[in-house]
Every structure is written in C-alpha cells, then in structure tokens.
Amino acid sequence: MSECVRLIPLGGFGEIGKNMLLLECQEQLLLIDAGIAFPDDDTPPGIDLLIPDYSYLRENAERLLAIVLTHGHEDHIGGLPYVLRDVRAPVYGTPLTLGLVRAKLGRHRLDDVDLHSIAAGDRLTIGPFDLEFFRVTHSIPDCLGLGIHTPVGSIVHSGDFKFDHTPIDGRRTDFSTLVRLGDDGVRLLISDSTNIERQGHTPSEMVVGKSFDEIFQRAPGRVLVATFASQIHRIQQVFDVAARHGRRVLVSGRSMERNVSVAAELGYLQIPEGLRLTHGELAELSDAAVVILVTGSQGEPVAGLSRLARGKHPRLRLREDDTVVLSATPIPGNEATVWRLINDLLRWGAQVVDHRAEVVHVSGHASREEIALLFNLIRPEFGVPFHGEYRHMVTYGDLAQAVGLPHHNIFLLQNGDVLRLDRDGARLDGTVAHGVWHVDGGRISELGAADSVLQDRGFLSESGVVAAAVSYDFAAGGALAPPVVKARGVRGVDEALCEQAAAELAARLAELPAPERHDRVEVERAGKRCVRAFFERAVRIYPVLQFLLLDPTAPWPEAAGEAQSEPAG
C-alpha cells in the first residue's frame, strides 16, 4: 500500500460546532480540536451538551500521538475532558487556550493531563507529522492555524480565522507564513467556511469599541453588556471604554468570572487597578458609574441575563434606566429564545441595544473575499471546507472553482467520511463510525436520541405522566383501599377527571374473574389497560403511565411492589 494521509472528520464538517478532526499517517493518529455544541430545539430535554461520537478514536486510542488545539472556544475545546476520560495523549495549545483548558479539566478532576504550551512560530515534529503554527486573528486571542508537513505533501488547516488588520491586541495574521507555505506548495487546504455567504470582508473587532463608546456616553444609568465569556477581545474593550467614561466594571457569572481571571493572570486582559468592581461595592456607586459584564446573550435559561430578565437573579435586579447591550448575534436556532429575552428586558423598562440597531457585534469568521484571499495565498491542489453547514460548504465549492480549483479537487466532507491523500491524488476512502453523543449531567449517552431514558423524557415533555397506585391483597383477591390516580403535565386533565379514572379502575378490578384476582400479572395488566383506555377516551392523549401495585399484606421485601413507566399508547 502506498504512503498516504487520511483525513477523518468526527465533528464540525457539515455543521457549526463539535469540531474534531483526526489525521492518520503511518498507522498513527493526530487529533485536531475536541469541541462541543449546545442543545437546540431538536435535543431531548435535560441534555447539557452535544459531543461527537468518538468511538473510532477510542477504539484506536493506542495509535493517538497527540491532541492539538487551535484556540480556546468551547466548540474546539469543550469536549476535551470527555475524550480524555477514554484516551490519553499529550495536549498542545497556546497559553490562553491551555489556561481555559486547565480550569475545565480541574472541574472534571483531570489533573494529570500532559499539557504542552506552544506559540505562533513554533515548529514541532510528532511522529510522521511536522507541524508549524502560525497566528490567525479570530474573536479570541492566541488562535493558531496549522501547517502540517507529511510524507505526501503539506496540509494547511486555517483554524477559525478572519483577516483583522486592526486587532485589539495588535497581533495580526501571519501573512508571511501563509505566502511561504503557498510558495512551497500545499496539497490540501482545510478552511473555515462559516461566513462564505457574506460578501466582502468581516469588520474589525475595533469597530465594536466605537459603538460601546457612544452607548456608554449616552446611557443614563447602568450599562449591562452581555457577551460570550470567551470573547476576551470584546471584554477588553468593555474595560477600556468603561475606564474612559469613569465607570467601574462588575463581572457577573461563574464562566465570565473564570475566563476574565484566567485571561488577566496570563496577560491577555489588561485591567487597570481599581477598575474591577465587586458586588459588595456596587451599592456605593451611582448607576451612571457602573458597567456589568454578564453572560446570556443567547437567552440561555440559567445564564445571568436571563435570570435578571425573569427577576430571579440572586444578587442583581434590573432598573428602568438600565441599558442592556446584547453583544452577539443569535446562533441559528436561538432566535425565538433571544426574542423572548428582549421582550422580558423591555418589560422592566430597560433599553435594549442589539446588532440590528448598532454595531455591537462583529463575527470572528472570514467573509467571502477573505476566504478567496486565503485560497490565492495558499494555492492548494485540493480544498476541503469545515466549520460550516452543508449550504456553506456548497458555496465554498463554488468560490474555490471561481479562484481556479477544479471541481473534482473539492471535497465536501461530512462527519465520518474518510479522505485519502496520497502522491497520486485525493479520493474518498470509506467511512468510520460517527454521530452525536449527549452529555447529561456529566454522563455520556452514547446511544444519542435512541437512549431509552431520553426517549422517556421526550414522551414526558410531550404528553405528561399519569400515576396510578393500588393497594391490593392478592391472598384475598381484592383492593384494600380505593385506587389513587394523579396526573402531571397532562393537558385537559384536572383532579375531578383523575377521580373518575380512579373510580373506573376500582370497578374494573372488582369485575375481574376470580382466578385473575389472585394473579399479580393479570391484575396489573387489567389495571394498566383500564387507565390507558380511560384517558384515551376522555381527552384523546397517550401520557406516560406509571402503575404502582402494592401488596402491604405480603412479607417484606415482596411488599415493595413494582413501578413501571412506559408510554400509555
């Protein structure tokens, strides 16, 4: 078999989020990023996070050489603690990325992970992979692109990027390395396609600061800025503008406090002494001297801003002269949630400013002309888009052809697809296991939506639950007391209807033939059928039924009875 490199995307291809890419060469593996996605409307109730199905990686754990992280956003590092439960390898990342990772691993009690700090300009050989790291600008500091030199040629991974010529930290994209890589010859380019449908160039992060300046100046009272806790550049601008206007900044929320502290300790946030405010000092200042940094720009129910909007925040209350800045755009699927948040904020009398009215958010991803420029700098033989839905990838393919790449040299990979790159060219080479796993309270459901517990949650959320309890003497063959029926979350069912159901259940059990009255299986079967039929007939629903049959006359432990849950239909 000729020498080759295989690209194996487990997440982040044909979607936004859950970034996880394996490279395979000489029977050895290199993992690039290990991200998560957040639940959407199609996710079963109670799920905290979504991660890729990494069973292929777990099955080949002994072949994994290293994990390389491009930057510190959750969709690139959030899945790392779960992967590291099953697979151990050295982890490489920039200082800020590793600072965020350390805090995350500490919460998962993973204190023995082998972490290695790298920086733009470094070069590192890991097995058959000769890696060089170059700086790219994004919406968080310390972002890297990768030049990956292999026995079959060079691969460039752009990471998440945009070409910001006036970045907040002054660290611009390393164009000289991109040009050199292109001049030396690149077989394959893997590049960000998120904003491929947007014409022109993505604005610089600097323009957000100008909008903040105008908003802070005219605001009559407190200014509350809601943004992602990982938006370190955005957070820096909040501190800078607050200082210019004589305001102090309260950082509210665990993730925001944690990230601000990590970034400040590592020197990525410059906070003048005395500018940061504590909750205890808040009452001592006038409203016009206060800025509050808070999470919840996507309307997340447990985030600080949502709790404020519902009047449920433990330490803060909204006021009529507050100005709330939503410094983010809704993630696709979150639009309705964000609208509800805005409505709730307005009911308190607060003024709400979002991206529709002023430039309070810019994307961290390259627009169409920047992606075209990357193509022209790299001039790859083959092109692969990532970090985009399928429509983005199709548009990426059109752009790649427009700048000179043949149609047959563009691969729109989906998660699980395998692309083989060798000296003869590139071609699809089968698939591996892929899909979505659900994280529920720290536990992983590898069955995804097929998990019976999650299916039960879906039934419960749609139809509610009916519980029926019968105290029954099997020796005597009859109920010891009238049955009890209760309903929760069942539309159109009240206490009176439950009492009718209980009476019908009592009558049905009394009608059982003599032999069946002493048989637990027959009594339980008849009881369940009776309750199901009653609610189907009365309100035309099929709730989840919990049926408890208890015989208090039996010796312990048989008296424990049985409780079974199942869809009533």
Task: Itemize the secondary structure elements and their pairings.
Layout: E1 4-11, E2 13-14, E3 20-25, E4 28-32, E5 49-52, H1 55-59, E6 64-68, H2 74-77, H3 80-86, E7 91-93, H4 95-107, E8 115-117, E9 123-126, E10 129-136, E11 143-150, E12 153-157, H5 175-184, E13 188-192, H6 206-218, E14 223-226, H7 232-244, E15 248-251, H8 254-265, E16 276-277, H9 279-282, E17 290-294, H10 304-309, E18 323-326, H11 335-347, E19 351-353, H12 368-378, E20 382-386, E21 388-389, H13 390-402, E22 417-422, E23 425-431, E24 436-440, E25 443-445, H14 452-463, E26 465-473, E27 478-479, E28 484-488, H15 495-510, H16 514-517, H17 520-539, E29 544-550, E30 562-567
Parallel strand pairs: 2-21, 4-6, 6-7, 7-8, 12-13, 13-20, 14-17, 14-18, 15-16, 15-17, 18-19, 26-29
Antiparallel strand pairs: 1-3, 1-22, 3-4, 5-24, 9-10, 10-11, 11-12, 22-23, 24-25, 26-27, 26-28, 29-30
Task: Please tally the helical runs, counting DSSP H or I stretches of 4 or more residues.
Answer: 17
Largest sheet: 8 strands, mixed
Strand proportion: 25-35%
What does the radius of gyration come to?
Answer: 29 Å
Number of strands: 30
* Tally of structural domains: 3
What's the end-to-end separation, in Å?
56 Å
Shape type: globular
Q: What is the helix content? A: 25-40%
What's the architecture of the largest domain, going by CATH? 4-Layer Sandwich
- Mean pLDDT figure: 89
Output the strand order for the largest sheet: 8-7-6-4-3-1-22-23
CATH superfamily of the largest domain: Ribonuclease Z/Hydroxyacylglutathione hydrolase-like
